[in-house]
Amino acid sequence: MDGPSTAAGPHAPPAPPSRSADGRWARGHRADLAAFAAGLLSAAALPPVTLIPVLLVSVPVLLILIGTSRTAWVAARRGWLFGFGHHLLGL
Question: Fewer beta carbons under 10 A from the terminal one: N or C of the chain?
């Protein structure tokens, strides 16, 4: 042998893709529930709680969920669920 063998040779199996890269976690009912939960979380930015930094989490989650949507109808549904959760808790 020329040197020590490593698993990263030319015949090594490809590394599995990360879950966030392919958007698998952001599909189906889980993604709809995540949009609703992000909307509930964003309501904590309203008075009397006024935790403005939660918007730094909830809004990017919404944007990721909308960006990984397969159709415009799915994106609209997720946006609606976010708004429903936000206004439901904000009342």
Answer: N
